[in-house]
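Following up on my earlier thread - several people asked me to post the actual chain instead of describing it. Fair enough. Here it is, all 233 residues.
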Amino acid sequence: MTTLRSRSSLRLLCLFLVAIVAGFVAGCGSDDDGGEGGAAGTTAAETTVNGECHEVEAPDPKSDGGEKPPTEALDPAKTYRLIVQTNCGTFTIELDQKTAPKTAASLVSLAESGFYDGTTFHRVVPGFIIQGGDPTGTGGGGPGYKTVDVPPSDAAYTKGVVAMAKARNEAPGTSGSQFFVVTGPDIGLPAEYAVVGKVTDGMVTVEAIDALGTGDGPPSMPVVMERVTVQAS
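Reply from S.P.:
Thanks for posting it. Predicted structure:
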């Protein structure tokens, strides 16, 4: 009887310890109090932590063109940032008004109009770039107008740099709405693509998107710009 009681007590102790450990593991990474990284009442699938992608359905294509170019320049005394929220987390682009004033003003105008909301990163080349900003998701769409900010001859396309995509037959510095973030140390592009800024926060999110690349084309799962907002200071 003494042996059976000892075994029974030991079994109860083990179950108690297992319950404690299970509760601890279940609590790691959660955000039940609605703090940063999630909201109270959201499910695990709805909560995005920077650098962790959750699956979402690809959005329906948006209309191509139809946007009007901005009529006013940005305030040169302010620093403008684009906060890009995706299903892989959030990253921040600090715009460079000195290098690309027209393009920076265009991106701010497009973001404020909701142009980027619900668009995708349609092209991911691992260790090279992630590219998005096409309302159609095909790689051929844009806002319906162009800006031109010729980059300096010594422009370097290094990790975290944000530049504008263009067709090969377009003049250097030509921009629509499509932009790319460099994910390689130095991808060696010629100085033909308007340098509009750099990622100053959330590079872990950019790297998570980059990791979904399978070659030169769409990522292995949809990456959606759920919302792009403007911050000025």
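Residues 1-47 have pLDDT under 50 and may be disordered. That should answer part of your original question.
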